[in-house]
Amino acid sequence: MKVTALVGSSGTGKSYQAMNLALNRGIAYVVDDGLLIFGNQVLGGSSAKREDSRMAAVKRALFLDPGHRKEVGDLIKNRKPDGILLIGTSDRMVDIIAENLDIAPVDEKVYIEDISTGDEIRMAKSQRSREGKHIIPVPTFQIKEDFSGYFLNPLRAIRRLGMAERISEKSVVRPTFSYLGDYRISNRVVRDLVLFASYKIIGVERVTGIQVHNTIHGLEISFAINIVYGNPIRAISERVQEQVREEIEYMTSFHIREIRVFVKNLIIPE
Questions:
Q1: Do 125 and 248 belong together in one domain?
Q2: Of the candidates 37, 121, 198, 261, which lies 20 to 30 Å from 101 by C-alpha distance?
Q3: pTM for the full model?
Q4: Mean pLDDT for back-to-back runs of 10 residues, the chain (270 residues)
Q5: Are 148 and 263 found together in one domain?
Q6: Whole-Å CA distances, 189 to 49, 173, 204
């Protein structure tokens, strides 16, 4: 197995460029910030961006926790990849990662300055310092449950390979330890969004009893609706679920774990 490393200081756009480098080198596996990624899929590990402090994030990225280290190390051993790409902020960091995952030594080190222009690096640093945004090189749907309530914005990139196109997606998150502060939305706002979304559906006469439960894996929402008699009950209930999910996920970036809709009454128009 050939071990390649992408090295660059924090905020220089390493994770954004990782998929380009992996694609160009024919590398299918990437280790980035505590995650083992295969193509556009997270295979295992846990993201350093979920830690509560920078020190804890560094430890997570270095695989210092025995359980975390064993999980990802075993996945690599079982998968037996031909090549793997490690991402780190220094030569020493990628060497430690390779050693902890039992895949040392690093065969080749690529530096961010070799594959990004000065303008690209300056732009990446500006976004990190002004907005606290970090890139995870996997689609938003892959990590949405783990990052419920955090800023999650997909970045799509289209790669042309001869006559074919390849579309990859990266996700922008703002970590827990961001100096910009926590991102929270009150249950009252969520309830207002439920009302707003539900009343968009023709046939819904009233919405009552909205309950919002915020778990570590996402929101659980339940509420009752009155439907105007003569409308299809099942179809309207399902459409309300869809509309509420779309509205809340779009407006808040929260992962919706469950939506329970109860039909309380049928209303006969006067």
A1: no
A2: 121
A3: 0.55
A4: 93 80 89 85 81 84 95 96 94 96 95 90 70 48 45 40 41 44 64 92 95 81 96 95 87 79 91
A5: no
A6: 26, 22, 20
